Amino acid sequence: MKFDEAYSGNVFIKSHPSFEESEAVIYGMPMDWTVSYRPGSRFGPARIREVSIGLEEYSLYLDRELEEVKYYDAGDIPLPFGNPQKSIEMIEEFVDQVLAADKFPLGMGGEHLVSWPVMKAMYKKYPDLAIIHMDAHTDLRDHYEGEPLSHSTPIKKVCELIGPTNVYSFGIRSGMKEEFQWAKEVGMHISPFEVLEPLKEVLPKLAGRPVYVTIDIDVLDPAHAPGTGTVDAGGITSRELLASIHAIAKSDIKVVGCDLVEVAPIYDNSEQTVNTASKLIREMILGWVQKK
Amino acid sequence: MKFDEAYSGNVFIKSHPSFEESEAVIYGMPMDWTVSYRPGSRFGPARIREVSIGLEEYSLYLDRELEEVKYYDAGDIPLPFGNPQKSIEMIEEFVDQVLAADKFPLGMGGEHLVSWPVMKAMYKKYPDLAIIHMDAHTDLRDHYEGEPLSHSTPIKKVCELIGPTNVYSFGIRSGMKEEFQWAKEVGMHISPFEVLEPLKEVLPKLAGRPVYVTIDIDVLDPAHAPGTGTVDAGGITSRELLASIHAIAKSDIKVVGCDLVEVAPIYDNSEQTVNTASKLIREMILGWVQKK
Amino acid sequence: MKFDEAYSGNVFIKSHPSFEESEAVIYGMPMDWTVSYRPGSRFGPARIREVSIGLEEYSLYLDRELEEVKYYDAGDIPLPFGNPQKSIEMIEEFVDQVLAADKFPLGMGGEHLVSWPVMKAMYKKYPDLAIIHMDAHTDLRDHYEGEPLSHSTPIKKVCELIGPTNVYSFGIRSGMKEEFQWAKEVGMHISPFEVLEPLKEVLPKLAGRPVYVTIDIDVLDPAHAPGTGTVDAGGITSRELLASIHAIAKSDIKVVGCDLVEVAPIYDNSEQTVNTASKLIREMILGWVQKK
Amino acid sequence: MKFDEAYSGNVFIKSHPSFEESEAVIYGMPMDWTVSYRPGSRFGPARIREVSIGLEEYSLYLDRELEEVKYYDAGDIPLPFGNPQKSIEMIEEFVDQVLAADKFPLGMGGEHLVSWPVMKAMYKKYPDLAIIHMDAHTDLRDHYEGEPLSHSTPIKKVCELIGPTNVYSFGIRSGMKEEFQWAKEVGMHISPFEVLEPLKEVLPKLAGRPVYVTIDIDVLDPAHAPGTGTVDAGGITSRELLASIHAIAKSDIKVVGCDLVEVAPIYDNSEQTVNTASKLIREMILGWVQKK
Amino acid sequence: MKFDEAYSGNVFIKSHPSFEESEAVIYGMPMDWTVSYRPGSRFGPARIREVSIGLEEYSLYLDRELEEVKYYDAGDIPLPFGNPQKSIEMIEEFVDQVLAADKFPLGMGGEHLVSWPVMKAMYKKYPDLAIIHMDAHTDLRDHYEGEPLSHSTPIKKVCELIGPTNVYSFGIRSGMKEEFQWAKEVGMHISPFEVLEPLKEVLPKLAGRPVYVTIDIDVLDPAHAPGTGTVDAGGITSRELLASIHAIAKSDIKVVGCDLVEVAPIYDNSEQTVNTASKLIREMILGWVQKK
Amino acid sequence: MKFDEAYSGNVFIKSHPSFEESEAVIYGMPMDWTVSYRPGSRFGPARIREVSIGLEEYSLYLDRELEEVKYYDAGDIPLPFGNPQKSIEMIEEFVDQVLAADKFPLGMGGEHLVSWPVMKAMYKKYPDLAIIHMDAHTDLRDHYEGEPLSHSTPIKKVCELIGPTNVYSFGIRSGMKEEFQWAKEVGMHISPFEVLEPLKEVLPKLAGRPVYVTIDIDVLDPAHAPGTGTVDAGGITSRELLASIHAIAKSDIKVVGCDLVEVAPIYDNSEQTVNTASKLIREMILGWVQKK
Ligand SMILES: [Mn+2]
Ligand SMILES: [Mn+2]
Ligand SMILES: [Mn+2]
Ligand SMILES: [Mn+2]
Ligand SMILES: [Mn+2]
Ligand SMILES: [Mn+2]
Ligand SMILES: [Mn+2]
Ligand SMILES: [Mn+2]
Ligand SMILES: [Mn+2]
Ligand SMILES: [Mn+2]
Ligand SMILES: [Mn+2]
Ligand SMILES: [Mn+2]
């Protein structure tokens, strides 16, 4: 007496009912309490799942179908409202479990701070970890007006954890002067404005390494992703982002986990951004999960 | 590895995980293909569930909590797009099963035509059935521009099935002249404009009888329910509708099933209507389920 | 090879194709260039027509059908953008023609300044004219920041033209202190906050007189008419406004023309206001046209 | 006593008042009852006409003005809600009449299924017909969850009618694996992702042949056309679509009819899509009508 | 070279330029990080100021003009994103300063938690303080899913600080069963559903006492205030809320400060709620400031 | 007792508090009364300031920070509603004062007609003035349906004032045939469709000359700027517009003033356009102010 959950919009389309049998785990991190501008990304994961039923199950780009990969959708982690510290602890603990079960974690934000505990967990398992980061923003602050737990700090934190030379940012078009100077001084990679072309140059250097990919949807131009907290003109097209996902899929790196963050449905008037996010996740599943 | 479904927004808040153990069954009928004006109610059930997590579990009106009733949320019936005939067959078959298991059916629309197969199924089980119908519209047409399967016909159909004197409409403010004339001629009850006061007069007459209650959200004034296909000024307040639900709860009728239809989220810009619908359903559960 | 225009949404539903044979003329005055707050009412008339196809042709309130009245929809007067002086001249000239043909003028705004030239034209034909004005605002300014052609001045202008004791305002809840003082001094009637009850008291005094009725949609509470330039809390319900229209219909005054103004679709997110406006116009047609 | 209809927004701007004297006929097909995702395209034709008054009458691209072509706007065919079978019969019958009068049919949808009866009518007149199809989707299904009358089937139907080698699809980025395989097997042309460049290669092959062009607005990227039922990231720009229209205009094919479908205003929050659609139609009129 | 700030929308209309010369201080508390449902109230204060320029400066209800009261608009307190503890400390410190200067504090939220530090500061100055609280919700939780700093806790906190018998809640229609039980046990006043009538009974009991009034905009029905985080059907009208403000103004209590919270512009599609909030604040200024 | 105005959203971010000490003056021209299609740009300047607080103060494009330039934000000129003649006189007078104080004027519209009085003022100071104009539209009409004061006329007016060979238009894709013919005949420069490449060719020719740059936001494609009165498909990306601003910054022309007009927030559903406009203005400040 229950209709097929795989097409209900309650889980990402075609999700597998068994955690144990799955290769990957999709999960939501519905947190937006530290954002400095427009909140609302807490509702991102639920809406991405909801519209995923409009997706075709086949990718013409990768010539693969969703039934070729088994993934389980665990739902949204019930994070405590207004408590960033406890929230990131819960996220880290959850991802630890996913990794302990040897599954591929695919997270949906929520604000970008949620990627910090995920990357911490990844690093515990993969000491040789590298990060590919696509974003309009550096996210290299030490704190935002005094707050170290801020959506503008996760990349700085991971640089300090795994070493800045292991972190590669693409599509960056905004940040403080100091952030760019710091990145230059410590040898962290930042490709301004562009994603696809510089990514193609970086990928061979990372061949064979375990890589976590974190995508802030605002790397897209506002024309392609109005539904996010901090829109920033001059970004890339969804076509370039799709091609970048495919470039990673065809490279020799080992993708060991990934996330897509900062989707804020309340600013997404025609549901354009959540539909695009759901297509991106399909391509991430089809292109990355079995590359581990 | 799955977070508590009862608070996920995937089911109506606090839904019980077991069909067998439940007294009532909630189900969605995501159909809007015959509407003559604005479509979109197919997305009503999913959004009502989604926002139900914002509800308190306690009703100050009825001094009851949701945990006092066990109800199962079966999800949305996967109706075939653009095929009204097959859709109503599937709905009838589903409700037959619910009734066979002796559960209370609580349906969410979808356009009002979905109530027709439900009422047919109810009548098979309850030959003494009466209908309470709250709506801005008569819904007494034989057909709409030639189409007998139309959201403007379900009340006419049920009148013909169970006899017009067993059907009681409230809050009606729009219809064709012929519809009102027909109702008068055949002795069907129509209370124009008002719901609560005439309902209080009718309820004693129905004492002890099995009654199915069908609520078209557009019985509310557009100020209270903008998110519906056919807004019609001059309606009642949500306060009056809540009080009407409570009047039924405190009456001596036996409510044997109910529905809430015509919630169309795309026209519900601030999510006002879906939030109101979800509160109405909480009150219907707490007030009506155990009255059978 | 043209589908029935009466149900096309291009004219008010059921409009008669012949000007000559009609008793009344509907026309739009798409002007919003002097509004001090939010523009957009230029698109009001077109949208009211468009949604009028969703109306029932029968009024349960008045037990009449639209086919009992012949009215012609002339479309929108092509007013020159940004030129209030020329605009009001064109409106006056148009209404002069309507009146010369002995038709009942039913205008749709546009900002409230459009009523000024209409009332001027009416007065030329009906020297004994009285005005019934429903509005949240006094509209009794001499000028707005120096501009005498402003949406906040039409009632002052008509008071000066026909004498303030012939002007009756209802539902007023906002204005300058000086406006209320002036009204009091010169004996103009203002009913604050309420419409229906004070109207019932005034109507007998106007028995037999020719009356022009001008309705600013913002007399409704913002809950009932969000789609207007200047929303003002504490207003009346659409139910009270409908009842007021009906009270006039049942009174002994001679309605010789009317308008409904300040409908601004861009602020009308769920099309609630334009749908309400279209129902109001149906009632004005059915209740007032043949009272001349 | 009627203002110039050509600039009223009731017809496409500058439409000619006489069917007989016109070379082309514009008509709306307001049907959306079989769509599997978001309905609402029934309101597309009316809104495209409404905003067409904001267009310049001159095309800088083609150096032509609208007055150089005579076209008649017949309005919207009054299709029966929820009845796809009868709807497509009415459409075919209407287009038969247009073709019998030797006019160029220019249709506006409505969902893509409306193109099927049009193409059927075209084929009766032009046995050598070829189809140019621009879309994000293959539309090559036999049925959608059991329904053969679905917006995802029209291209399959026309392939079967006129032979798949006479059908050329461009811009396709979504579909089932089986659809692409079928196309390959039967020799139907599909250009994935791109429109302009592959079109330039195909056009010479079609020189001299009668061609019907059907454009699904979702061939545009969601950034360029959010107002449609099924947005799909990774599409083309409006610039590329305009250039594609111009490439056809400058080619040696004989365009014998065309349509633009799937414009859904309710998802078009800033009216961007309807404005773009209206510009596209201007270019289709100026570039294609006299190429017959 | 600066245009008159009093009419700029940057301050509440007609604000006085001098803090020292003013009787009252308006300030914003742009915090929404602990809300459990829909965030966005951080933008409430700025939007209320912005639309305040559309207000008349005269109140017909109170027959007073804004120039009769001197009030200074201090702007928004720059609260640290995502840090509730530090935020409430900053608010308390700010209000301490306002009170030290013997000014009347009029705060704008932001989520309801912001009222907690304000009430703490008030109590330090007024040991005999009573609280009038208008809200749909009890706000009597000890914590929300473990978080004591939550928008659902401020009334519980102030009850514990000043004693529950000094706190009067009105209009309450939602809460946990335990909250209502606790209120009953400790003798705290809760008027369910209604505001005006029970308030009129309470006011004489508070005659002569210093009272802080905290208004959660969601005490209004969603029809009257869609732009808030937690809409809850069955609320009061803006007319009743205006009358309640006036009842307090005409009573013998000493209003020593007040706030209006939970206005969330992103859900306020037609700017209805912010316009209503700005009118409410005008009435609070005119009715309450000089009652100290 | 006032929080830092530079980050309040009341002025453009980081504005300097002193007119005298500043190099540039930002000012709003909130006028939209002559627009022929969709009004609403009167609210553009206020919203651009409001969202400017979301900007980074550093430009990665120009490697400069806002603190390197001193600019004063004078607020919005209080223009008289519905009176274009008086409005343009007030604008000219204001800019005269700015120029008399030897400041760089940076104006925000409002409709494009506001640029006309600014350019008049500029020409009085700079007899050798040239104009760079970026727009979708020619704006070369003599009048719009009889009105010489129209948003479609400012470029014609300035051509007549300073000579058409001194005016350079870029990105133009719409206009009347006569406008293009006139431009050609009199030797005015129009680059159709493109901005960046033709601009690079023109800039060397203008080396050393004083140039006023006027940008109509609708030069952007609707995908990049939905929030404007007259969206027109086929435009440039925000990336191309940013690059064009930077090309001017790096050229040898002397920019002596500039404006950005036609931003209409009511059509800007996700605040995409105002955020883009605010970024453009940051680049104009950093790139152009000290080039005088
Ligand atoms: Mn980020
Ligand atoms: Mn970012
Ligand atoms: Mn109904
Ligand atoms: Mn109904
Ligand atoms: Mn008025
Ligand atoms: Mn008014
Ligand atoms: Mn298609
Ligand atoms: Mn398609
Ligand atoms: Mn509260
Ligand atoms: Mn509350
Ligand atoms: Mn322009
Ligand atoms: Mn332009």
From TrEMBL, chains A, B, C, D, E, F:
<feature type="binding site">
    <location>
        <position position="137"/>
    </location>
    <ligand>
        <name>Mn(2+)</name>
    </ligand>
</feature>
<dbReference type="InterPro" id="IPR005925">
    <property type="entry name" value="Agmatinase-rel"/>
</dbReference>
<keyword id="KW-0464">Manganese</keyword>
<feature type="binding site">
    <location>
        <position position="139"/>
    </location>
    <ligand>
        <name>Mn(2+)</name>
    </ligand>
</feature>
<dbReference type="GO" id="GO:0008295">
    <property type="term" value="P:spermidine biosynthetic process"/>
</dbReference>
<feature type="binding site">
    <location>
        <position position="218"/>
    </location>
    <ligand>
        <name>Mn(2+)</name>
    </ligand>
</feature>
<dbReference type="GO" id="GO:0033389">
    <property type="term" value="P:putrescine biosynthetic process from arginine, via agmatine"/>
</dbReference>
<dbReference type="InterPro" id="IPR023696">
    <property type="entry name" value="Ureohydrolase_dom_sf"/>
</dbReference>
<comment type="function">
    <text>Catalyzes the formation of putrescine from agmatine.</text>
</comment>
<feature type="binding site">
    <location>
        <position position="135"/>
    </location>
    <ligand>
        <name>Mn(2+)</name>
    </ligand>
</feature>
<keyword id="KW-0479">Metal-binding</keyword>
<protein>
    <recommendedName>
        <fullName>Agmatinase</fullName>
        <ecNumber>3.5.3.11</ecNumber>
    </recommendedName>
</protein>
<comment type="pathway">
    <text>Amine and polyamine biosynthesis; putrescine biosynthesis via agmatine pathway; putrescine from agmatine: step 1/1.</text>
</comment>
<keyword id="KW-0745">Spermidine biosynthesis</keyword>
<dbReference type="InterPro" id="IPR020855">
    <property type="entry name" value="Ureohydrolase_Mn_BS"/>
</dbReference>
<dbReference type="InterPro" id="IPR006035">
    <property type="entry name" value="Ureohydrolase"/>
</dbReference>
<feature type="binding site">
    <location>
        <position position="112"/>
    </location>
    <ligand>
        <name>Mn(2+)</name>
    </ligand>
</feature>
<dbReference type="GO" id="GO:0008783">
    <property type="term" value="F:agmatinase activity"/>
</dbReference>
<keyword id="KW-0620">Polyamine biosynthesis</keyword>
<feature type="binding site">
    <location>
        <position position="216"/>
    </location>
    <ligand>
        <name>Mn(2+)</name>
    </ligand>
</feature>
<comment type="similarity">
    <text>Belongs to the arginase family. Agmatinase subfamily.</text>
</comment>
<dbReference type="GO" id="GO:0046872">
    <property type="term" value="F:metal ion binding"/>
</dbReference>
<keyword id="KW-0378">Hydrolase</keyword>
<dbReference type="Pfam" id="PF00491">
    <property type="entry name" value="Arginase"/>
</dbReference>
<keyword id="KW-0661">Putrescine biosynthesis</keyword>
